[in-house]
Fold this protein.
Amino acid sequence: MNLTDAAADNVLLCFPHLPDSCPREHRFLVLKVVMYFLTLGTILMTVLGNFLVIITISYFKQLQSPTNLIILSMALVDCMLGCLIMPFSLVRWLERCWFLGEIFCQIHSGLDMTLSIASILHLCLVSVDRYMAICDPLSYKMNVTNFSAAVCIAVIWLFSVTFSFGVVLSKINIVGLEELLMQAACVGSCALIFNRQWGVIVSLVAFFGPGAVMSALYLKIFHVARKQAKIMSERSTVRQTNSETKAHSSEHRERKAAKTLGIVMGIFLLCWLPFFIVTITDPFLNFSTPIDVFDALVWFGYLNSTFNPLIYGFFYPRFQRAFKI
């Protein structure tokens, strides 16, 4: 009994003055410092990188094309994610406490879901834009304007907000989990979980649907880019008979296209696929995924917003000139 009392006295609480407070996570000081350093660095890179994209596109008129308007809106989404979501998620993860109350918990969860879905849908819209530009350039120049791009962007924002806050505020995602939530209820908790049905629905809407569209379109783009590279190589050799040089030029274009598309899709899948796999499977496994593992996967998803401006800065020539890399 004395050992039990001593152990209870050593438990850190989120709100020590409340008897039903959630326990606070105890971590070694060195580990906590390292985790804060890495996550704060990630937040800083996310905010500054996307802010630089926003300023660059807004300042340079030659960058204000339909494609770059989509990238501008996506940078705004990712910058908001870095400013409004990631700092609070950081404290919740490392301290295992939510200090801002139930209302702000719902706002944070709704915004987190909104911005994450919006970021992924912007990536999907970029793939649609690039597909039209490369595979049907004449139609693209006639039909795709800054206005049409703005309409698509507005639809993405409206859908993301409506869908996310509709789910969070209606609490349809936790129907059937009432007993589990009652058992784990304590002051200082803030978690967005999904039952079996909505774990599948949200994952399909937010990731697997857009991801399938992106994969199909980028494969088509790569196929068309290979054909165009060969045609351009043949046309550029009217006065050139060295077949080895021609082949080298064509292969160089193909490798560059494959590298860029591969990096875009690879980073997207690496960041988000593990999280959405767990989102689908965890309800069927009685939520057995450790909390630290789940939160780490959330931050892997956030990293997609950190990498987006780096992709544009390093692989898009116009941004390279604007950034002066």
